Amino acid sequence: MAQEQSALELEYAIPPRQRFNPLKWARREPFGAFGFSLIVFIVFMSAAAPVLRTAPPNEFAVGPPLAGPNTENWFGTTARGKDVWSRVLFAGRISLKIGVATVLLGTLGGTLIALLSAYAGGAVDFAVGRVADMFIAIPGLLLALVLHSSISADLPDLPGLQREELYLVVAISLFFMPGTYRIMRGIVLELRESTYVEAAQVIGSSSFRIMWRHIAPNMFGLMIVITSISLPAAILAEASLSFLGLGVPIGGLDAVPSWGADLSGSSRRFFSVAPWLAVFPGLALAITVFGFNIFGDSLRDTLDPRLRGRI
Amino acid sequence: MRDNENYWQRLRRRPVSRRSFLVGSSVAAAGSAAILAGCGDDDDDDEPAAATQAAAATEAAATEAAAAATEAATEAAAAATAAATEAAAAAADDSHKRGGTLKMWKTEEDAGLDPGVFHVANTEVLYSTLTQPYTYQPTKNLFAMDGMVGFEQVDPTTFVWSIRPGMKFHNGDAVDSEAVAFSFGRLEKLYRALDGTHTTRTGFVFVDSFEPSDELTVTEHWNRPNADAPVYRARHYYSFINPRMVDEHGKFEGSYEHPDGTIEDIYSIQTLPPGSGSGPYTLTKRDTTGTRVERWPDYHKHSPADDGFVEDGPYIDAWETRIIPDNVAAKAAFLAGDLDVYAGVDPLELPEFDGQDHVKIVELPAGGFAGQGMDGGKFHDKRSRQALQKAFDYEGFIAAIRPLGGAYAAPISDLLSAYQKLGQEDLKQWLRYDPQEARQLWAAADFEVPVDKIKVFQSTGDPLMHEISDFMAQTLAKALDIETEVEAVDVNTWAARAVNRDEPVKDWEILSYGTGTSGGTTGVPNDTHLIHYDPRAYGFNAFNHYAESSRKEIAEGSVTISEMLNAQEAETDVEARAELLTEVQRWILDNHWCNWKLPNSTVSYYGFSSRLQDQGIADWLNFYDRRRESMWLQES
User: Fold this and answer.
1) B341 near B333, Cβ under 8 Å?
2) Helix axis angle, A84-120 relative to A216-243, nearest 10°?
3) How far apart are CA B492 and CA B47, in angstroms?
4) Each residue of A13-69: pLDDT tens digit?
5) Residue B52 region, left (φ>0) first, then alpha (ψ -120 to 50), else beta?
6) Interior CA angle at B416 toward B412 and B231, to 5°?
7) ipTM, 2 decimals?
8) Residues with Cβ < 8 Å from B316, sequence gap 6 or more?
9) CA angle (B452 as vertex; B450, B456 as ends), nearest 5
10) Do B470 and A81 touch (CB under 8 A)?
11) CA distance A62 to chain B (A)
12) CA B285: distance to chain centroid?
């Protein structure tokens, strides 16, 4: 009897909480660790851009036109003599800024809507679901173009986020939000039927308390995974919109270089005679997206072992 | 075989085989020999009848005569054969020039096709499907007659035109003086009905009336002399439009009040339905992918054909113009052989064309402009305009944007060499970067509408345009310590907002237009580029610099410059006119009037496919190319 009891205790015992050991995680997820180091590298380079730059990124004629990589201009110059190295460094800022802001808004927004609508259920859930379906049905690029012509001019400048940047955040977030909602809604529906939620309802907990204290914390892990996986897609979306001229301000002293914008515009007509114009911004974009992708994949494996190796 | 060909066209197109050519030549030679033998030698024949002489000849003489006849026949046959060979070769030359499709591109769809209203992204249709009076090649100072066969200045204010007989619109209606007078006269009415949103006015502002004198004669009565009138009439604005098609298919544009107080409804013809024009081609496609014009089989003959024309109509069968918004995509298409023309080759990309045998890069005079227009509603105080011009770093601009060479630009183009008396050193007196003085002038200037941010407004399409606007925004921000931004929109939206006059001020501060690379001249100072400063043209509708302006300084300046512009237009003596033009330019520069030109490129390159022949390169950039019927495509 005692043996049976100890066996049961052992089976249902709550394992002691283990402290996160980064080195141990890195050994178990070497690709994830590599991805993380790439992200750290990109973030560092972007943050240190004002120090690491060799010229103001928007300054004309800091070197001869279309000069190849050299000791003065490490990544060469554009047709108008702008320094490519400095532009690549500064462009990382806008990519990361838009990427993070977009994913936070998209993921948090999608999660919050999913929590409210799925918990409420019924007509509310049905209506919200159809709206999400509608947004999913609209191609992202088309949505961005419509938003650009309809709301872009009316958006305000926010602290740290110019009007054009805000447009990018809104346009890309609206693209991610319905997908996040779909995934999160399923989790909420599942959690809503769990015994501890039923128990909380029985003891008279308010709906807000149940959502906030019992359901939301259980969505957190998946939210992180979605965030890490969406981020590279958001960075690519920013680059794509900037490539199409719908991105950040394109001229003036305060114009922000963007990898996508630098891969388009006047640079493109010189790619065959000056390949460095395409190689370096493209490489920076690829490294960033690759880093976030493999880090997100490992994070998903770590936080949700059931999915490990399935995808 | 083409469905719309008649028997004679098919017969003319039928190839001549070597055998049939030899048979024809032999028959011609034998016939010639017989005639020569029958007629004898004219040189030694003083008798009235060769037959009498032949009858009286002795046997020896007969033998000698026969021998001579044979020799003469042989020579005649040889001569006939040579002549026939030459003629056949000439015919063969001409026939091998015929056919093919010229492949062009443009960045935008047109906003309309009425030649009196829209002039952006539609000239490939207007010049090909409509007839203009003639073409003008400034490099040769040559008029080549098209819809007209002659013109005469009867007195300083009367001009008389003769219309080519036998012309028909594409629906069979006759092209007569009524139609031509209607086509010319409607321009003023359209201009009024549309409240001056287009810029054709300089070509008719001096005209009182266009009158049909008889069936094929039109008389213009002017209110003052104008030296450029004949050249203006070579432009597409003066295309012949079928009045019946305007009546039946026109779009109501507004009302026009005649001097006697009567009101007339005015219609445009934006879609150019079949029958609107009488040009060598008809419009067969116009959609979001581009346009296509194809040969009109009943096109009138040009006999004799002036320079650039062909008696039986253009050599090329069709023009296909694709819409390719992206310059780089157009270059790729050009290099792949899918386009015959690639405009605006950047000198820095020249190495990319090396070793490409199917294309040729041609150096042309860099007669373009990089204009920066200022909104007179905001910059009504001369000091504010002067501040903007002194805040611009000209040498920095040349170093950055014109790395292979740049030159300061005057109000009129340097291509007008007979008129341009301002040199580089003269221009540097006005176009001088001085940020300190710029700031002082800016601070002292009076602004009825506060300007705390400068928006540089440009159209998309050419990436170089963006670089220019970017430089402008940066240099102004640095020098004036003011916030700047660049806004880029598609060219039709850009044009609509540029001429929008709903508000007393524009929704931009500086309108950026032109890249200052390639560009030609029609030979008219107004076209290149006084029209940009003219209070009756762009000055009015784009830059709020006009006589009726509520800003006193702008209104007074408009009156002054209008008088100066009228005076130079009326002067027919080249030297005297050059003096007047110098005076106008100095006034513009002294008053920083309306807009200013950034330094131009000193070199300009244009790409053509190797198969395109006789395109009249020297005058390619002034719209003349659209009407050169003798262009042909050499198929490999």
Assistant:
1) no
2) 140
3) 82
4) 666 666 778 888 889 889 999 999 999 999 999 999 999 999 999 999 999 999 999
5) alpha
6) 100
7) 0.72
8) B99, B100, B101, B102, B631, B632, B633
9) 110
10) no
11) 9
12) 22
Closest CA to B577 of B616, B530, B517, B508: B530
Q: What pLDDT score does B92 carry? A: 54
Contact B401 A60 (CB under 8 A): yes
Query: Using the 8-state DSSP alphabet, how is residue B304 labeled?
Result: S
Token pair 């007008």: residue: B416
Q: What is the DSSP string of B170-197?
A: TTS-B--HHHHHHHHHHHHHHHHHTTT-
Q: Is the pLDDT of residue A304 over 80?
A: no
pLDDT digits (tens, 9 = 90+) for A224-256: 888 887 888 888 888 888 777 777 766 666 677
* Chain B residue numbers touching A251 (CB-CB < 8 A): 456, 466, 469-470, 472-474, 484-486
**pTM for the complete prediction?**
0.75
> Residue B387: which of B343, B433, B451 has the closest Cα?
B433
Number of Cβ pairs closer than 8 Å across A and B? 85
Query: Hey, which residues does B162 pair with through a beta bridge?
Result: B150, B217
Q: Provide the token pair at B528.
A: 């290149």
CB A253 to CB B352 under 8 A?
A: no
B486 to chain A: closest CA residue: A251
For residue range A193-205, what is the model confidence (pLDDT) as tens digits? 899 899 998 999 9
Q: Is A255 an 8 Å CB contact of chain B?
A: yes
The CA-atom distances, in angstroms, between B53 and each of B35, B69, B72, B73, B405 are 16, 14, 18, 19, 83
* B348:A79 CB<8 A: yes
Q: Are strands B341-345 and B453-459 parallel, antiparallel or unpaired?
A: unpaired
Give pLDDT, residue B89.
Answer: 53
Output the CA torsion sign for B206, B209, B213, B217: positive
Residue B344 tokens, joined: 């605006």
- Which residues in chain B are closer than 8 Å to A252, comparing Cβ atoms? 456, 470, 473-474, 477, 484-486
CB of A266 less than 8 A from some CB of B: yes
The answer to whether B581 and B419 have CB atoms below 8 angstroms apart is yes
Of A66, A80, A273, the CB nearest to B400: A80
Which residue of chain A comes nearest to B454, CA vs CA?
A252
Q: Label residue B573 left, alpha or beta by phi (over 0 means left) and psi (-120 to 50 means alpha).
A: beta
Closest residue in B to A64 (Cα) is B403
Answer for the pair B406, B397: CB distance below 8 angstroms, yes or no: yes
Q: Are B367 and B529 in contact (CB under 8 A)?
A: no
Say how many C-beta atoms besides its own lie within 10 A of residue B624's C-beta: 24
pLDDT for B613 equals 95
Amino acid at A145: L
Query: What is the reported pLDDT for A250?
Result: 60
Residue B202's pLDDT is 83
Q: What is the mean pLDDT of each run of 10 residues along chain B (636 residues)?
A: 46 48 48 45 36 33 37 44 48 81 93 89 94 92 94 93 96 97 94 79 90 96 92 92 96 91 94 96 96 96 94 96 90 95 88 92 87 96 97 96 92 93 96 97 96 92 86 95 88 87 94 89 89 92 94 96 94 95 98 96 91 90 86 88
Gap between the Cα atoms of B233 and A218, Å rounded:
79
